[in-house]
Amino acid sequence: MQDFTNETIDINLLPKYELVTLSKPHPNYWKIIVINILIFLLFIGAVLTVMLFNIPELKTYLYIIIAGYAVLAIFLFFIFKASFKRRGFAMREKDLIYKSGIIAETTTIVPLNRIQHVALNEGIFSRIFKLGKIQIYTAGGQSGHLMIAGVEIETAKSMKELLLKKLGEMDNLTENQS
User: Is this model's pTM higher than 0.85 or not?
Assistant: First the structure.
């Protein structure tokens, strides 16, 4: 039987995930984001137009409504563009790194041995631009799930296959240890 130890770890000697070069979403993913924003703005514009025609009192606020709509549109484009530029991902030997966020930057590192399921999704616009979204489900519950969007479909398929292969290897290792 081994004696219990609990040595202090020098945190300066730990690997620096910040030094890993992250892959960015494909530039065509920005086009998909813009299409989605435009669809949302079109819907909001239609609702506002119906409201303006059916509620005569709102016509006195027409310029305020138009200004608010324009501010919303500009804000959405600004926020999503900033978010798009900050996203990145990397696969390493033992984990997957995903970074996102504008005001609060979030870096998620998922150990491969915590992954339970991998899915590849292609929306209608993603298929047009040959892009995919990889969804990774972990043993950590809902908060541990990871979604990487804007990946070229061939790269996404390769990542999925590699992750599934690693999952199979880990399952075999676990079975052999039992």
Answer: no
DSSP string, 47-90: HHHHHHHH-GGGGGGHHHHHHHHHHHHHHHHHHHHHHHHH-EEE
96 exposed, middle or buried (CB, 10 Å; 0-12, 13-18, 19+)?
A: buried
Q: CB–CB of 122/153 below 8 Å?
A: yes
CATH 3.40.50 is the classification of domain 88-177: no
**Which residues have a Cβ under 8 Å from the Cβ of 22 and sit 6 or more positions away?**
88, 89, 90, 97, 99
Provide the CA 53 distance to its chain's centre, in angstroms.
39
**How far apart are alpha carbons 168 and 108 in whole angstroms?**
23
Element (H, E) at 123: none
- Domains of the chain by residue range: 28-83, 88-177
**CA neighbor of 45 nearest in space, from 69, 22, 9:** 69
How many residues in the chain?
Answer: 178
pLDDT tens digit string along 94-132?
889 999 998 888 998 888 888 888 999 999 999 999 999
